[in-house]
Each structure stands twice: as structure tokens, then as C-alpha cells.
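Asp23/Gls24 family envelope stress response protein
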Amino acid sequence: MSKGHISSEKELALNNVITAIIESNVSEHGEIIIYKYKNDLLATLLKKRSVVKNGVNIKIFDDKDVLIQLNLMIQKGYNMIKKIERLQKTIQEEIQLLTGLTVRQINVTLLDVFTK
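Predicted C-alpha cells:
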């Protein structure tokens, strides 16, 4: 293992911890849902797979920095920007506290707005 790279076991463990932090924080916001890949009817009819496969994508750099991509859906009627900014801040703080990693960025793609 060369300097600056982490072992695959450690990376997997960090990914699992970070994913759990993200899922926990998202579940506390009932109006926000992590997008899960599904083979929807339109994609089937067009004989294409959906472009988005995962709701959470994590990239760890040199065992010290992390970049996160979240693909989310939010309930209609909520202040989306404030809710997502608050979610990003909370996730960033918890990841830094629990893993010691610095969160470079949390990119959010809002894929859908739903009604309950």
C-alpha cells in the first residue's frame, strides 16, 4: 500500500459509517428521501436504464477528505433550499466528528418533488 492510499477494508468501513450518518440524518427529515435506483416504466419503455443508480455516492481522498454526492427527493411545500442546506451542514459536522475526515463538499441533486 503506497503512502496516501487507504486499504480497501478501511475505505469500506468509512463508506459504511458515512452512509449510516447520511441515512440517519435524512430519516430525521420526513420530507426528504434518498433516491433509490429503480427500473421505472419510462426507462423500460425507452429500453434505457435510469441515469441515477445510487442515492449516495462517497469518494474518500488520501484518508483525510471526503466528497459526497446525494440524490434526493423532497416533499412539495417545504422550503427546499433551507432544508437541504441544514441537512448538508448536519451531515458535514457529524462526519467530521465521528470519522475525523474533512468534508470537502456535499453536492445535492434534487431529482423529484413529491406529495404525501
